[in-house]
Design a protein that fits this description.
This protein is of the alpha+beta class and 197 residues long. It is 28% helix and 28% strand. It is built from four helices and eleven strands; from the N terminus they run H-H-E-E-E-E-E-E-E-E-H-E-E-H-E. The chain is elongated and about 75 Å long.
Length: 197
């Protein structure tokens, strides 16, 4: 009986210590999720191009980070892709996403505030190579379908169950000669509330 009591007490004390450690460590992780970091990057309803990651040579690192870098800052980590992000709130109006066909491959993904991918597409699955989508709540989708405007006949309707989230738009930059075209594609991309005609 002593062994059983000892094992039970050890387990309870260990569980209590683990819970205390987790509770004390939570402030270090709060606010560092993708949605919070994207919201801090800039205003809503507009694409913000992410900067390329700084030089990561070992001699420039301090505690595993490049000197002067912010641990919570967003950065583009793939040298062959350029990335832009846009956070949104569709409580009042659906979100219109539009970009004319890019010079090379592009992809777009919609994420909820918990960083779960809700929808994605690329230049191969779009109509004519253009990004043309509307993100809306189920009620907003029903309204759009009742009175479709001529401008939305080619748009892909994305039914979104939440009200806030973010969009990630990526385009390929396979060589330095594509840099200007990739930047222009991301700069001209639209992420804005849908304006009723």
């Amino acid at each position: 009986m002593n062994r059983l009591t000892y094992a039970a007490l050890t387990g309870l004390i260990g569980a209590a210590l683990l819970h205390i450690i987790i509770i004390l460590a939570l402030p270090n992780f709060t606010g560092k999720d993708a949605y919070t970091r994207i919201k801090a990057a800039g205003p809503s309803h507009r694409f913000i191009m992410l900067p390329d990651r700084a030089d990561n040579r070992a001699d420039n690192k301090v505690d595993g980070q490049a000197e002067g870098s912010d641990r919570t800052a967003l950065a583009n980590v793939d040298p062959f892709l350029k990335v832009a992000v846009c956070h949104f709130d569709i409580t009042r109006a659906p979100l219109r996403l539009y970009a004319a066909a890019g010079p090379s491959f592009w992809s777009m993904a919609v994420f909820d505030a918990g960083s779960n991918e809700v929808f994605s597409m690329n230049d191969r699955t779009s109509v004519g190579g253009d990004l043309d989508a509307v993100v809306a709540t189920p009620a907003q989708v029903a309204q759009i379908r009742k009175a479709p405007g001529a401008a939305l006949t080619q748009s892909i309707l994305v039914e979104y169950r939440g009200s806030t989230g973010y969009v990630v738009l990526r385009t390929m930059e396979p060589a330095p000669s594509f840099a200007a075209q990739a930047r222009a594609f991301l700069d001209e991309a639209l992420c804005a509330p849908l304006v009723e005609d």
